[in-house]
Amino acid sequence: MTDPIADFLTRIRNAVKAGHKVVDIPGSKMKREMTKILKEKGYILNYKFEQDGIRSNIKIALKYHPETKMPAIRTLTRVSKPGLRRYTNVEDMPRVLNGLGIAILSTSLGVMSDKEARQKNVGGEVLCYVY
User: Fold this and answer.
1) Cα–Cα dist 91/58, whole Å
2) Average pLDDT, stretch 77-87?
3) Cα 77 from chain centroid?
4) Per UniProt, what is one Pfam family of this protein (predicted)?
5) How sure is the predictor about 1, in pLDDT bands with cuts at 50, 70 and 90?
6) Among positive and negative, which fits the CA dihedral 8, 10, 16, 19?
7) Which of 58, 79, 98, 112 has the fewest Cβ atoms surrounding its Cβ within 10 A?
8) Are 10 and 2 contacting, i.e. CB atoms less than 8 angstroms apart?
9) 56 CB-side CA count, 13 A
10) Number of Cβ atoms within 10 Å of the Cβ of 78
11) Helices H, strands E: what count in the chain?
12) 3-state SS assignment for residue 80
């Protein structure tokens, strides 16, 4: 697999479109941090990290509106790709949907949302947009 983050986003996107409640994803440290950000910002209900020997797994409970059954995640877009990395500084930090969505960044201080990166005054690689 050449791009595990794109695989992570695609598995979530496909599960949302299929209406699944839970999705299983092979785990890594980067995916674990991205999952924590999605939970903090209210895009997923819950998550569980499972470790069996060397292999790790992430179970993500997807979030839907109780009455309309609309998913909390409308769009997941990969920005920085292995063939073309996208970096940004604090001044040029992207605003997703004019502040309604989030951008997940990999910075020197760890993986964080665009709002946290602005507060800590750091830039980094823009991994994806979520709204």
Assistant:
1) 34
2) 96
3) 9
4) Ribosomal_S8
5) confident
6) negative
7) 98
8) no
9) 9
10) 18
11) 3, 8
12) coil
- Which run of H or E residues covers position 104? strand 102-107
- H or E segment and range at residue 76: strand 76-78
> How far apart are the C-alpha atoms of 108 and 120, rounded to whole Å?
11
- Binning the chain into helix, strand and coil, the percentages to the nearest 5 are 30, 35, 35
Joined together, the tokens standing for residue 30 give 């980067």
Strand partners, 106: 111, 125
Half-sphere exposure in the Cβ direction for 70 (13 Å, CA): 5
Residue matched to tokens 């674990």: 32
Helix 4-18 with 29-40: angle, nearest 10 deg: 40
Structure token digits, residue 104: 């997940």
**Closest to 51 (Cα-Cα) out of 59, 41, 62:** 59
* pLDDT, tens digit, 9 for 90 and up, residues 3-26: 999 999 999 999 999 999 999 999
